[in-house]
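Chain A, query sequence.
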Amino acid sequence: RWGTVGEAAADAGMSREGFSRRFRKLHGIPPHAFWHLAKLNDARRLLRMGQPIASVAAEAGFSDQSHLGRCFRRAFGVTPGRFRSELPTSHLF
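Chain A, predicted structure.
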């Protein structure tokens, strides 16, 4: 995992702009959006495991529970709590 697009570009031996253009061409979205979606998908996985929302936010890399909630709702149309409450109980460990 890279901390920034600039670090990923440096690892690839490219400029930040060149890396971003190439990444978008290959994956259809900019690198920052890709990593943001990866964090959200990680949060969904953790919620399915039954972890508390605050610890999910921290482990998935969000600044706090509110930040996770805003991003999660924007991406998936429901809050993390609603998402978890609508899971079949067999998904919770």
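The radius of gyration is 16 Å. The mean pLDDT is 91.
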